[in-house]
Design a protein that fits this description.
This protein has about 350 residues and is mainly alpha-helical. About 60% of the residues lie in helices and about 10% in strands. It has a three-stranded mixed β-sheet with strand order 1-2-8. Strand 4 and strand 5 form a beta hairpin. It starts with a helix and ends with a helix.
Length: about 350
Amino acid sequence: MKKRIGLIVLIIIAILVIFNFDLIRYGIRQASGQIHIIYNARPVEQYLNDSTVSQEVKDKLRLVDDVKAFAHERLHLAETDNYTEMYDQQGKPVLWVVTGCEPFSFQPYQWTFPVLGSVPYKGFFKKHLADQELEVIKSKGLDAGMRTVGGWSTLGWFNDPILSEMLNRSNGDLANLIIHELVHSTIFVKDSVEFNENLASFIADKGTLIYMSEKYGTDSDEMKSYINEENDNKKFIKHMLTGYDILNSLYLSFDGVPDEQKLSKKEEAIKSIINNLDTLKLYNDNRLSNFKGFVPNNTYFMSFKRYQSKQGKLDSLFNKEFDQELVNFIEYLKNKHPYL
């Protein structure tokens, strides 16, 4: 009887492996990539005590630790062992993210994972694997996009290390990134990527303003520089969200229109959106030079919706219900949305 039960269990496991082979292989590859980074990361203290490491790098490492303490003590975000080590990227990307979207609507392609649920992106630690996935998405007749990632949260599965390229950011931008990722370690709702990313962006923006003001002073050069960066970001994001709305309205008008005409109208609209970037008055307009020859598709505009489209609603809730008290706002969300 026991042998028969054991055989049945083995058959069930074999069936599960066969039908979930791609997912299992992907999981093994992701775990392997993450473990490689963690295994090769060094404790921050080693960098701080290394005479060959520049003072600038050491200052940024201390800043990360300071931001972590602020996030836990002042914002009541979860206390973790994240960012106690650093992985030297040697100037190279370590993670590529692939996204997909319908060509004439903003319906994202979704991947399904255990625990996380449905997710509109897929990450790879090997670029050639990301390239392969990109071609799979294109073969389905979808818009496909790929970008490198400067930081991510493993949601408690691992102790996330600092990535060396993070330290190339300005002080304010680095603080914002750390707080953003720590929000993911505190509040993360299954099957709600857009909510999670918008919330992390919102709390990081508000929290960074408090942090920079308290650390450097409201009239400091550091604070002024950060505010200028943020104002540029807001203008740029608003422009791209407006572009999203323009394209979405166009797609909704496509009923009965031949695909060839749809594509022509879409390309014309995207070209106009990109050309109109010249109308933005930015403090630092160097970022606009990256758009020379660049033709985005739906996945690019979807990324702005995913990270920024709910900022107005969150701001309204923050102001009306919590009188701009960020800690109370965070506590409310922690209670309303228990972590995973």
